[in-house]
Amino acid sequence: EKIYVQKFRRRKNYRRRTGHRSVSTKVRINKIPSVE
Q1: Distance between CA atoms of 5 and 17, rounded to whole angstroms?
Q2: For residue 29, what are the domain limits?
Q3: Per-residue model confidence (pLDDT) at position 23
Q4: What integer pLDDT is reported at residue 13 of this predicted model?
Q5: What is the residue-wise DSSP string for the chain?
Q6: Regions of the chain short of the pLDDT cut 50
Q7: Cut 0.70: pTM above it
Q8: Cβ-proximal residues to 2 (8 Å cutoff; 6+ apart), any chain
Q9: How many domains, in total, are found in the chain?
Q10: Helix (H, G, I), strand (E, B) or coil at 20
């Protein structure tokens, strides 16, 4: 699931899902440690 969000964020389409904005923020936090 995290990967799907990361790929989705890469595409500016993630902006279209404003309703998932809160979920994106949660995944973003988990993505930071994943990248490092």
Answers
A1: 11
A2: 2-35
A3: 57
A4: 56
A5: -HHHHHHHHHSGGGGG-GGGHHHHHHHHHHHHHHH-
A6: 1
A7: no
A8: 27, 30, 31, 34
A9: 1
A10: helix
CA-nearest of 6, 1, 8, 4 to 31 is: 6
| Cβ(31)–Cβ(5) below 8 Å | yes
Collect contacts of 15-23 with beta carbons under 8 A, ≥24 apart.
none
Position of tokens 């995944």? 27
pLDDT for res 33? 64
CA distance 11 to 5: 10
Token output for 15: 């902006």
DSSP annotation of 16 reads G
The alpha carbon dihedral of 17, 18, 19, 25 has a sign of positive
Query: Which tokens belong to 21?
Result: 């904005």
For residues 22 and 36, give the distance between their C-alpha atoms in angstroms, rounded to a whole number.
Answer: 22
